[in-house]
From TrEMBL:
Residues 24-43 bind DNA. The keyword Magnesium does not apply. This is TetR family transcriptional regulator. GO terms for molecular function: DNA-binding transcription factor activity; transcription cis-regulatory region binding. Residues 1-61 form the HTH tetR-type domain. The lineage of its organism: Bacteria, Bacillati, Actinomycetota, Actinomycetes, Pseudonocardiales. Keywords: DNA-binding. The keyword DNA-binding applies. It comes from Amycolatopsis echigonensis.
Length: 187
């Protein structure tokens, strides 16, 4: 593992412990065993480092949804949905402790929002694409509002991540499969 990867891994740890707002680049560099100057050789700012943590250290919800959208026929609908909800729940559980502190200050939220290329609605668009593919296969009703269904499914995963983080517990182990099974029945 190179210095960049070690810095990203250290950033994930420090951000989980302190949240984005209180994770300084100095603390991250120190945790990685490097100078802050080296950190800035790899990342222009803390937001770029945060985005690297989201992309490289957390379960990749967007990639899972995109892969499922490309080839939904490779597995049963219930299996695809279980994989998607498991990944969504893992992503939100891992990212929630890191990103929640962005809301501690309106100025911090505004700055963070202004520097993002793709906002937090990006996973919604990928999951909409996946559910559209399932509709085209005939495994979901043709009159299904896929955007609303996506928001319900991801919202349930996000809510569990919030509760798990708040209660300092792991997510309920059966929830992803229960969500998938319930969704499959109504879809």
């Amino acid at each position: 593992m190179g210095s960049r990867e070690e810095i990203v891994a250290a950033a994930a740890t420090v951000m989980r412990e302190r949240g984005y707002a209180h994770a300084t680049t100095k603390a991250i560099a120190q945790a990685a065993g490097y100078s802050e100057a080296l950190l800035y050789k790899h990342f222009r700012d803390k937001t770029a480092l945060f985005l690297a943590v989201l992309k490289e250290e957390l379960p990749d919800l967007a990639a899972t949804a995109a892969r499922l959208a490309e080839h939904p026929e490779k597995a049963e609908f219930s299996d695809n949905l279980a994989e998607l909800t498991t990944t969504a729940l893992a992503f939100y559980c891992a990212s929630f402790p890191i990103s929640v502190s962005i809301f501690s200050s309106r100025a911090l939220l505004r700055t963070h929002r202004d520097t993002l290329e793709n906002g937090p609605d990006q996973p919604i668009q990928y999951v909409v694409g996946y559910l559209d593919a399932e509709v085209k296969l005939g495994r979901l009703r043709s009159d299904l509002d896929v955007e609303a269904a996506t928001r319900l499914l991801l919202g349930a995963c996000f809510q569990e991540a919030f509760l798990a983080s708040f209660e300092e517990r792991p997510p309920r182990p059966d929830l992803a499969h229960r969500l998938a099974a319930t969704f499959a029945k109504i879809g």
